[in-house]
């Protein structure tokens, strides 16, 4: 039987992963509607997402959903810079590569996370867990190996985005522990920094480099389009907060596993319910990846169960020791012998 703390920790982790999964699906749907409304300004949309995240967290702070905590802004700025690097190079990777290659490289951050945790932070991993992660990555390779259009520049951007994504995931978890900050407290610092850092990219990509009439400020901000942008921003707030929750409550590795599960589930849902074409190799790869996700989940449950059993055994041993120390027999042993 799991202790109450373990029950609470497991429930919190499951809730965070479910929140991230649903919000990720929501932002994909919202962004599709935004792009269909002819808002073709990806950099500005990213800025909008982090601006809404910062504004939303400020409102949550005002209504006392959480309490602010003074954090080292320099360490938070490093995390924000890692986030910016990940976003910028992911967009460049998508721009210069096929969608399949982009998706594959995005999930190759999983072994990079393992390497960073092991080499730089001396984090050890169970061999079975590593095996399950390799199964997932192999599944992604099979699923997306059907449409590769490689080029040197695109591959370079993709590799940088993989490293940036892995560093961002690891730093997010490590910084929460180092600063003893919860996900909302840390994101309250990071989100406005990311939004501020994105302003020069917005000016270059969506304002100065475009002709009059095609700039972001020339877009038709009708009531309907503003409503769609608002939905996208709220979904982004949920995604950004839930990412920090998943990494903080579980680990950077589990966050990567959740990413693979989300990609597989979204593709299967499109295939089953929306008629998305899917080749046999795609389906086989996704099933392999999901098998790896299932294997990983079972192993994590077994590890949690073993830890809980150890905690219970130690608690029982301590309880028995205290009971024995306070027993009448033990007290009699300690009673002083009177010498006549």
From TrEMBL:
Q: What is its main location?
A: membrane
What is this protein called in UniProt? Similar to glucose-6-phosphate/phosphate translocator
Where do the TM regions start and end? 12-35, 47-65, 77-94, 128-146, 152-174, 186-208, 228-248, 280-299
Origin superkingdom? Eukaryota
Organism annotation = Cyanidioschyzon merolae (strain NIES-3377 / 10D) (Unicellular red alga)
Domain Sugar phosphate transporter, residue spans: 20-297
User: What residue spans carry the region label Disordered?
Assistant: 321-340
Basic and acidic residues composition bias: residue spans: 321-334
